[in-house]
Design goal:
Layout (H helix, E strand, L loop, with lengths): L2 H5 L7 H9 L3 H10 L2 H8 L4 H9 L3 H10 L2 H10 L3 H8 L3 H10 L2 H10 L2 H11 L17 E2 L4 H15 L6 E5 L5 E6 H6 L16 E2 L4 H9 L5 E5 L5 E6 H20 L15 H18 L1 H15 L7 H39 L8 H33 L8 H35 L4 H32 L1
Helix pairs in contact: 4-6, 6-8, 7-9, 9-11, 14-15, 15-18, 16-18, 16-19, 17-18, 18-20, 18-21, 19-20, 20-21
Amino acid sequence: MTEDQIYESPLEVGTDELKKVIATLNVNGAREIVETYPDADIASSLESLELNEQLIFLRLLTTSSAASIYSYLDEDVQVELAKSFTEDWGMKLLQELQSDELVDVLDELPSNVASKVLAYTSAEKRNELNKLLSYNDDEVGSIMSIDISSLPSSYTCEQALNKIRRDYKKNQKELVHYYFVVSETNKLLGVLTLEEITFAEPSEKIEDIYSPVAFVHTSEKKENAAKVFSEQDMSVLPVVNHEKRLIGMITSDDVIDVIQDEVTEDLYKIAGISNKVIENDYMKMPWYKIAQSRILWLSLLLIFSTITQIIIHWALHSTYITQKAADSASFATSLTVAFAAIIPVLNNSVKNMGLQSNISISRAIALDEIDKKDFTKVVLKELLAATVLAIVLAVVNVARLSAYFAATKDLLSDEKFKYLALIIGTSVALFISIILSSLFGSLLPILLIKAKKDPSSASVILLNLVIDFITVLITFGITYGILVSLS
């Protein structure tokens, strides 16, 4: 994946073009933009404008065009726009959305605004929305579309085509390539493609030409549904209840989102990042949330790595400290042993910090959440989060080592000031190393992209190599300098 591959977009409407249309209230210009560019690209550019500009642009379009573009906007932008809909026009726009899309918006709206939207909704659609809202977020029912056109098995192909046209024109059912066949009691029987219906004899019965189809249940986990979907050569999959009655369908778009979230969750688990930030766009996430999502694992890693320190310290102490007399040579050896045991502990935490930054940025680049113009903002955001994390971890390290050396009685000995110097030196080194590790971890994928290389090809290997060097060099340099100054 190169820089050109990631950021090339031959059909991209500029914000200046949108602003010009908005400033002049040019209805024809706005509608020409809709005819020229894909709705997804228009929505992407629209997101960078102010809320009032977004509203004006949508008002210049037909309700159906505005609704289509609205459906491609990020969820937080959709919510802010929905909050500002004070006229019938806004309510009508929301009614143009598919039921599953409208549910996603309602889920994030304040209760008073959601109630207003539901009050404007027809009784039939309101029942559908309430049904969708009743499913848990991890269930298939929460992502399925119920705006579908099913075909009774007793229909002829001519009747089926007429029903598809009628459903689409009257109820705005989702137009797809596959259509599901049901019995008189709405039980799922099979599937047909639009081509099979169109090219068959008009008098041929649907029950004679449909094929069996795989399905998922409304209460099934989304991850399981994604697995079933990947095994089928179809762009949609039917969703049934416990009686195998057809309830809705999931599309490839729905499944791509599920797979994306699942992969992100796995990556974040590897790096010890809280999965609460999975659904957030990197550029829209404040720095303190980035720090919050990483702090727990980094702190726990530092604390529990004390076990490693104890083992190394004990092993080296048993091997090398054989003199019973507390002469200066044995003290120097004892201090060296204590220092050597700390290095791998600090290295673990610093490496993990670099990995967290690297994975977050690499993922955001892969999902096109970061543009070239955002690179400076990204690095500054990571540095800010890293500084806060470095302060917290340095304090944790001081507390951890103080407790450790108090337990070994080294802080009660005549050389306690040198052990205090060791605590302060390693904590300062940890502070600096954490910041540099985060900086390098976030810069590496950006530099690889600029060099037209795949950021996943060498990031982690190079990251580990450089961070090992940084941590050892800084820790030895600072701690040795403090100890020498006290000698």
